[in-house]
Amino acid sequence: MSPPKRQSSSKSSRAGEASAGFDAANANSGAGHRSRLRARFEKSKFLGFSEHEIVELLLTLCIPRTDVKQPAKALLAKYGSLRRILDAPADGLREVSGIGSVTPIALQIIREAATLYLQESAGENELFDSTEALINLFRIRLGALRHEVFEVAYLDKSYRLIHDGIERLEEGVADRTRVYPGKVMRAALQKNAVFIVVAHNHPTGRLKASPEDKRLTQSLVEAAQAIQLTLLDHVIVTPDSAMSFLDEGLL
C-alpha cells in the first residue's frame, strides 16, 4: 500500500495566506466599526446610540484592535445595564470573555472620573428651594457610594449654595448625635449660612430613617434654632432612591 500523500507545501502556504487574510479582514472590519462609532460620537455625542453601542465605544478605549461587539453583548447580558457594568466589581468583570485584566480598572477610572465631575458641578448657581432639588443634589453625590457618609450643604438667604458650601464630615464617629451638631453650627457661622441641609446614604438600600437618624435630626434642629439658623431638610439616599425628612413629616 502506498503511503498517504503529504499536503504539498504550496497548498499549506495558500491555506496560511487565506487564514492570515481572514484575520486581517476581521481586524480591518473591527477598526472600521470603531472609527464609525467615534465619528458618530464626535458629531452628536450619544444621541441615537443604543446602550450596546455606548458600551462598545467605552471598550474601544480599553481594548486595542480586537472586535468589542461580543464583549459588550456579554457584559450587558450579565449585568443588564451600563450603570450596573460600571458599578460591577473588577473580579466579576474579568470573568467575562474578552475583557481581560486591564479593562475593569479602566472602567472604574471612567466611573470615578464621571462621579467626581458630577459632584464638582452639582449645585453650581442652582436654586435649592425645593425638596426635589435637594434630593437631586445628594443623589448625584452619594447614590453610588458603597459606604455610609454624612454631608452638609450650607445655603445663603436665596437658597443657593455658598462657595465651598458642601462639607463631608468625618466618618466613624461613635456618637454623631453629640458630635455633629457643634461641628455643623460652627461651620455654618464661619460661612455666614442662613439655611442648612444634611444628608447621608444607606448603601444597603434601606430607605427608612433609623431611630438614630431621627435623634440626630432633632439635635441639629435645636442647635440651629439656638443660633437663629434653619435646618431645611435631612435627605437619605440609597443606590436607587431617596427620601426627604421634610416630605415625610419628620421635620
UniProtKB/TrEMBL annotation:
Annotated Pfam families: RadC
Domain MPN: 127-251
Transmembrane segments: none
Keyword flag Hydrolase: yes
Coiled coil regions in record: none
Region (Disordered): 1-30
Keywords on record: Hydrolase, Metal-binding, Metalloprotease, Protease, Zinc
InterPro entries: MPN, RadC_JAB, RuvA_2-like, UPF0758
UniProt biased composition (Low complexity): 1-13
Top-level taxon in the UniProt lineage: Bacteria
MF (Gene Ontology): metal ion binding; metallopeptidase activity
Entry keyword annotation includes Protease: yes
UniProt-listed GO biological process terms: proteolysis
NCBIfam families cross-referenced by the UniProt entry: radc (TIGR00608)
Family: Belongs to the UPF0758 family.
Name of the protein this chain belongs to: DNA repair protein RadC
Organism: Rubellicoccus peritrichatus
